[in-house]
Amino acid sequence: MKQFKFFYRNGCHLCEDMYQLIQPYEKLNKIAVEKLNIDKDPDLYIKYNLLIPVLSDADENEICHYFFDKHSFEQILSN
Known about the structure:
Layout: E1 2-8, H1 13-27, E2 31-37, H2 42-48, E3 54-57, E4 62-65, H3 70-78
Parallel strand pairs: 1-2
Antiparallel strand pairs: 1-3, 3-4
């Protein structure tokens, strides 16, 4: 199972939209997603404040930000 990190903040409509598009993959047990609220970690806040939402692999290599990039995401899943 592939691991991903999802950086978000509460009340962010783009974050909610992106997570809704990720959830079907998670529900099918194709992926595991660690959700990280950037407002609870000063380092994450500095790194991601203007980019959220951000979806990355487990090593924090960015896959997409602002909007879900289905093509890039599915390419990673197929590897």
